[in-house]
Design a protein that fits this description.
alpha/beta; 9 helices; globular
């Protein structure tokens, strides 16, 4: 049986949103739960996971996580991103074959996104993989509006015909020069903030220095590409669910609205 550990990396010292994992978010019934709990509850819905662990260096986040029943792995404060934190947590996991990084700011991640990612890893033999979601007209427009307003919104991905990642960016790529009608097929893919890796791929990642593109974009996955490592993009379907990460304080209302729309209490 394949052992799958879902790790939720969480840090308090976010430059754009300090204390983000503890930000209360109201769901469909009006009840507020901290972001880290909502991300953990999303992870707990994934079929086939052996364990779900919150990885943090912050005592406040650890206390909150243990308070709602989560397992916690304490990791060093100098982890620069979630992938490094997952690598630092390896020794505290249950000997996984696959490690899934479900980022702590992505409580809207549907379980079938993660399940598709795990299945693709097993089917392809890839060492690292990540989901992508084709934008509809409304999502593409929101991306463009965020950039025009100077906000860092979601991340976009481009890949080759074999679905191997070519680049990820916080800009809207590919550049289309226009908006789209609701019934048009849009060549822009939203990168979903979730990754799967083999333990060996994680160890190699932690040994590589931070890359220049990674540093410029603030995107951890670019370290794989800068070192010539393959990252498989796995296209997933929204099935009517709205997907957004919580990147900035301004996103709280947007995420709460999506939680209510999805009927998540």
């Amino acid at each position: 049986m394949t052992r799958v550990s879902i790790v939720i990396p969480a840090r308090h010292a976010s430059s754009r949103f300090p204390g983000k994992p503890l930000q209360p978010l109201r769901g469909a019934g009006g009840k507020a739960k901290p972001l880290i709990r909502r991300s953990w509850e999303a992870a707990m819905q994934v079929r086939g996971a052996t364990e779900v662990v919150v990885a943090t260096d912050d005592a406040r986040i650890a206390e909150a996580a243990r308070g709602f029943g989560a397992r916690v792995a304490m990791t060093p404060a100098d982890c620069r991103n979630g992938t490094e934190r997952c690598a630092a947590a390896l020794g505290q996991l249950a000997a996984p074959d696959i490690v899934v990084n479900l980022q702590g700011d992505a409580p809207l991640t549907p379980p079938w996104f993660v399940e598709a990612l795990i299945a693709a890893m097993l089917r392809s033999g890839a060492e690292a993989a990540t989901p992508v979601l084709r934008c509809d007209a409304a999502a593409h427009r929101s991306f463009l509006e965020d950039r025009m307003a100077g906000r860092v919104g979601g991340t976009t991905a481009v890949f080759d015909r074999a679905m191997n990642a070519l680049y990820f960016s916080k800009e809207v790529i590919p550049w289309t020069g226009r908006s789209f009608a609701p019934d048009e097929r849009i060549p822009v893919f939203h990168h979903v903030g979730c990754y799967a890796y083999t333990p060996e791929a994680l160890r190699r990642y932690a040994a590589w220095p931070e890359g220049e593109l990674e540093r410029c974009e603030g995107l951890e996955q670019l370290r794989f590409l800068e070192n010539g490592a393959r990252m498989l993009c796995v296209e997933v379907e929204s099935r009517g669910r709205v997907f957004w990460e919580l990147n900035n304080p301004a996103d709280v209302e947007r995420v709460e609205r999506a939680l209510a729309q999805a009927g998540i209490e």
